[in-house]
């Protein structure tokens, strides 16, 4: 018989309690994994918006935390284009619109110039992109088109303005697929922001990070009040990304707390019920440290069992979430392996947090007192 | 035998043991001294509450005396590792058996062996041999619930022998047994004593058990009665 056999037998003896405790842990771990997974996929797809289009720098107004609130003069684009080391510049105006009829509270609307390098990141599934000087035409992301039930050629009302759908595209990221793209001039007019843009995206001549850092300094020195941020930093600094991260970690902390309290409860009960047995083990020559290992071993096995269950639940839960059409395209159904690994770490952490105190208490029991315990 | 002069010290010597339990100031022992020689079989008898179990727990290194000292082969217990003493030198047998219900007979016997350097195969081999020795080879894979009370106590005795102790301490080992099982267990203990030279200290209320040993120590109110 192995020591682990003894541990597992003890868990099996309290079968119902073991399963209940492990299920509790599993739910906590699964919700953490799904949240952290969604947040990290969110961040990754945010990043692919830029990377997919070969975007090296984002130019927005300095000192803002949310790109939507940035505001720059469209003419700045020509000046940027003339800056040394710049290959391409694309202006973009971003805002949000709602489609109440379809139950969509907020979708991103992008104003682009026709022929903008930004189109490189889109794959047109149906229809076409817009021509220069074309007005009130819209290209819909696949998910948005699905949710609105619109096809190429349909009429579409956007914030009170009549549009015609001329194309459906698939984006490289979740954001693109849930958004729509309209001509920059049309959006500027609609929003009363003539000759204004949210910012510019810049492709540098050299993808070398040192060259990009140089370009960034040059732009910021030459144009006061403007911030040029490398795409990766930009993503990590974005307030929504940060928010989703904070939420994921807050949930993790909460799950850890609740999970370890559950574990603590189960293990304290187990130790209390088995006081006499612990006395017997000590009488048979077991040291305090072995009693400690037995109880801690039980909680670690329980934690790992909960973690395994939690990982399965997390994967299944995420798939189930995708049955909702709104979630499709917005949520990546695959959990990165690193996130699944986090489940294992969580299970271990939980079981140690919740198991140490009962294990120490068990090991400190006075053997002759424990034997008298009924 | 040994070519050196035989040590004068007995296997176990208790000197002036007192034990006061912290709660309620119960004085369970009030000055107990005794010697137990190698290969001796001793019974401890006395009314309930007179301190028999308290004494046995002290002798087995499960608890410390308030005053006094116990010597094992001449060495004070206060100077040695009691866990190791219990694991290597002492086997405990209890009235209520205390075999682990989740483990089979042969697995129960292996429990004390976790504190030794035996590997898994050696543990199994040794446990099988012990189970056979107590006459339960045919029931080796049965759980305690499937065994009679007499068989359970025999498993407990095999378990007490797991690490080849020199001393077997039994607290009313036949107290929960019917007379047939009592005879079987008594027979087994006698065998171990006579064939293997195990030193036995048995707490008992049973005249049959007392009749089977060499010496009876009588206690009352925390003291040993002198004859
Ligand atoms: N851990 C303890 N804490 C407090 N009092 C104790 C403890 N253990 C024993 N006692 C008390 O010490 C006295 C002696 O107890 P002990 O168990 O040694 O008696 P005993 O002779 O074995 O009795 P029995 O034949 O009923 O088993 C009793 O009064 C008992 O209540
Ligand atoms: Mg007693």
Explained architecture:
The complex is a heterodimer of chains A (374) and B (227). Chain A is an alpha+beta fold and 374 residues long. Chain A has 13 helices and 12 strands. Chain A has helices at 3-13, 15-52, 76-81, 142-148, 174-177, 184-190, 209-222, 231-237, 239-273, 275-283, 288-321, 337-364, 367-372, and strands spanning 57-61, 72-73, 86-99, 104-112, 122-127, 137-141, 155-158, 161-171, 180-183, 196-197, 199-204, 226-230. In chain A, the strands form 2 sheets. In chain A, strands 1, 3, 4, 5, 6, 7, 8, 9, 11 and 12 form a 10-stranded mixed β-sheet that branches. Chain A has a two-stranded antiparallel sheet with strand order 2-10. In chain A, helix 2 (15-52) packs across helix 8. The two termini of chain A are 28 Å apart. The model of chain A has no long low-confidence stretch (mean pLDDT 89). Chain B is α/β, with parallel strands linked by helices and 227 residues long. Chain B has a single domain, classed as P-loop containing nucleotide triphosphate hydrolases (Rossmann fold). Helix content of chain B is 32%, strand content 25%. Chain B contains 7 helices and 10 strands. Chain B has helices at 52-59, 82-89, 105-110, 120-133, 149-160, 179-196, 207-212; strands at 12-21, 26-36, 41-45, 67-72, 75-76, 90-94, 167-171, 199-203, 215-220, 223-224. In chain B, strand 1 (12-21) and strand 2 form a beta hairpin. The longest helix of chain B has 18 residues, at 179-196. The radius of gyration of chain B is 18 Å and the shape is globular. The interface between A and B is medium-sized, with 25 and 30 residues. Bound molecules: adenosine-5'-triphosphate and magnesium ion. Adenosine-5'-triphosphate sits between chains B (21, 23, 26, 28, 48-54) and A (368-369, 372).
